[in-house]
Amino acid sequence: FFTVTGATTVTNNADSGVVTAVYPATLAAYNGTSGAVACGSGGSFTVANNVVSTSSGCNGPVTVPEGITELGVASLCNNSNSCGNKSANVGSVTLPSTLVRINNFALMSSGLTSVNFAAQSSLTTIGIKAFSYTSLTSITIPSSVTSIGGAPFYNSSSLTSVTFQEPSSLTAIGQNPGGNGEGMFQGTSISSCLLYTSPSPRD
Hints:
Layout: E1 9-12, E2 19-22, E3 35-38, E4 44-48, E5 51-56, E6 62-63, E7 70-71, E8 92-94, E9 101-102, E10 114-116, E11 125-126, E12 138-141, E13 147-148, E14 161-164, E15 172-173
Parallel strand pairs: 5-7, 6-8, 7-9, 8-10, 9-11, 11-13, 12-14, 13-15
Antiparallel strand pairs: 1-2, 3-4, 4-5
C-alpha cells in the first residue's frame, strides 16, 4: 500500500496494476510581470501583466511585490457571491509604491486586519466594497487617492478610524450601484466623519 498526495486525480488500472496520478500545473514564480507569488502562511496569488488576478488558499501575511499596479476585481477575497471559489485569509497586507488601483471587491471577506501602504504610494483608486466584511480596525488612505467607490468598508464592524493622509487628493466618493444606498462607513463603528474640501477654509 502507498499514499498519493497533492494529485488532482488518481486512477488504478485493474489489469496492469499501474497507478496514474495527475498533478496540477505549477505556475512559474513572479518574474516582474507575471507569475505566482507565495503568501506568508501558505497558498499563493497569481499576477498577469502586473495585475493580481486571482488567488488560491492565500494565507497571510501578504506582501505584494513592487512593480504590481493593480489588485484585480475580487482577486484576494474569500468565498462570497462576488468572489467565486477563493479561500483567502490574508491578515496583514503590505502594498507597493507602484500600486495604482484596488479594484472592486479586491479584499472583500478576506480576513484583512491591517493594510500597509508604501511611503510613496501611487494609489489613485479604491473600488466598490474593496475592504468590505473585513476585520480592519483602522486605515490611513494615501494622499494620492483621488476616487473611492461605494461602500468600501461595508460591514467591517471593527473599523473605528479612517485617516486621509494630507494633503489629500480625494475628489470623488461614489455609491454602490444597486446597493440600497450603502454609505461609505455603513456597518462600521464610525459614527461621524468630517471632510474638508479645498479651497473652503477649515472652520
